[in-house]
Amino acid sequence: MANSLKSSAGGVALQVTKPARAAGLVEEDAEGDATHLAGVYVYGFDDLLLVVDAERVKSEERAELIATAASDSGSIHRGEAASVEIAGNGYQVQLRQASRSGTTDIHSRQTASY
C-alpha cells in the first residue's frame, strides 16, 4: 500500500490515514474522534518503510518481517520507535531519524503497515 512522505513541523512524516485505520493502528469513536493511537516501530529499507504495531506484533514476528524486507530489498537502515499522531483531519507517523540523518527526500516510497 503506497503512502506519501511529507514535510511536517517535526521534519519528515509519513501520511498514514487510510492504512492506519485499516491496520487497526487507530481506533475512533462514532463521531470519528481518535480514542487510541498505536505505538509503532518504523524500519527503513531502500524504497520501503515498514510500520509495525508495537503492541500487537510479537518480537519474533517483527524480526521475521524485518528479515524478509531486508532480504527482498537488499538493504536495511536504522529503525525507531514512533507513534501514530493526529495531523489535520488524518494521521501520520513522524520520522525523526529521517530528519536527523538528512533523509529529506520525500518522493513516493512503498509502505507496509502491520
Q: Quick summary of this structure?
A:
This protein is an alpha+beta fold and 114 residues long.
Describe the structure.
The structure is a single chain. The protein has 114 residues and is of the alpha+beta class. The chain has one domain (2-113). Helices cover 24% and strands 44% of the residues. The protein is built from three helices and nine strands; from the N terminus they run ββαββββαββαβ. The chain has helices at residues 17-22, 59-73, 96-101; strands spanning 2-8, 11-15, 26-28, 34-37, 39-45, 48-53, 80-87, 90-94, 109-113. Strand 1 (2-8) and strand 2 (11-15) form a beta hairpin. The longest helix has 15 residues, at 59-73. The chain is globular.
β-strand amount:
35-45%
Helix content percent band? 10-25%
Number of domains: 1
Mean pLDDT across the residues is 84
Regarding quaternary structure, what we see is: single chain
Number of E-state strands: 9
Distance between the termini: 11 Å
String of helices and strands: EEHEEEEHEEHE
Name the strands of the widest sheet in spatial order: 1-2-8-7-5-6-9
Q: What sort of overall outline do the alpha carbons produce when their principal axes are compared?
A: globular
